[in-house]
Amino acid sequence: MRFISKRRRHPAAKPLTLILALFMMGFAYTAATPASQSAADSTTNPQVAQGKALYDVTCSSCHGLNGEGSSVAPSLIGVGAAAVDFQMGTGRMPMAKPAAQAPRNQVTYSDEEISAIAAYVASLGAGPAIPSADKYSTAGLSDEDLARGGELFRTNCSACHNFEGSGGALPDGAYAPALKGVSSKHIYEALRTGPQQMPLFSEGALPDEDVKDIIGYLTNLNEKPSYGGFALGGLGPVAEGFWGWLIGIGSLVLVATWLAKKGARA
């Protein structure tokens, strides 16, 4: 009778085998996957390298070293160069302190520096690019195009910005800014990137031709004088009705009171 001896395995054999298998799988995956190179590599694009250096000094304290965002600022991955050009080109960024909304302010960076930071942010993830002039130029628009732009603006924008682009209040301390004096490029970028409280209008929702008509309407509106006398800030019929009631009806009440006192004395 033959006895077959069995060798006892060490208790740690199974865990070690599992760890070795996982290690081999990770090694095989790394070998099969080509090494990815960051688009923000400073050795491949000098403008991106310049933008990275400026970003580290200007923006990283709020938006994170790699644009990942933080508790006080959103992520910049995928916002695109147009968002940076709008925010910095209108002086909204960098912000002096956190607030409900960044107001338009004096621009502190040159166009070259803004373009460099925009190039770096664009390298972090795909997003809307800085538009070329042909996308927002209003040259050659007819009166019909301007009228159509007015209809589009009143339909899509006037609920927040007022029918004349004078702006208005929003909940939680936010507001829709006035559009007077805003460049055509920045209006286009705002529509495409949806800064702060503003919704984003993609090309599918609002084609470039419609955006041109809207910009043309606003430009024409800003250039026209106020034919009705006092514009009252262009705040619409509520403000106009209030002043009409206060001055008109108030004057009638004062006159009626004066006449009544005069008749009582007589």
From TrEMBL:
Keywords associated with the record: Cell membrane, Electron transport, Heme, Iron, Membrane, Metal-binding, Repeat, Respiratory chain, Signal, Translocase, Transmembrane, Transmembrane helix, Transport
Membrane-topology descriptor: Multi-pass membrane protein
Stretches assigned to the Cytochrome c domain: 46-125, 144-222
Transmembrane residue ranges: 242-260
Top-rank taxon: Bacteria
EC number: 7.1.1.8
Keyword DNA-binding in record: no
Entry-linked InterPro entries: bc1_cytC-su (IPR009152), Cyt_c-like_dom (IPR009056), Cyt_c-like_dom_sf (IPR036909), Cytochrome_c_Oxidase_Subunit (IPR050597)
SUBUNIT field: The cytochrome bc1 complex is composed of a cytochrome b (QcrB), the Rieske iron-sulfur protein (QcrA) and a diheme cytochrome c (QcrC) subunit.
Protein's name in the database: Cytochrome bc1 complex cytochrome c subunit
Gene source species: Luteococcus sanguinis
Lineage: Bacteria, Bacillati, Actinomycetota, Actinomycetes, Propionibacteriales
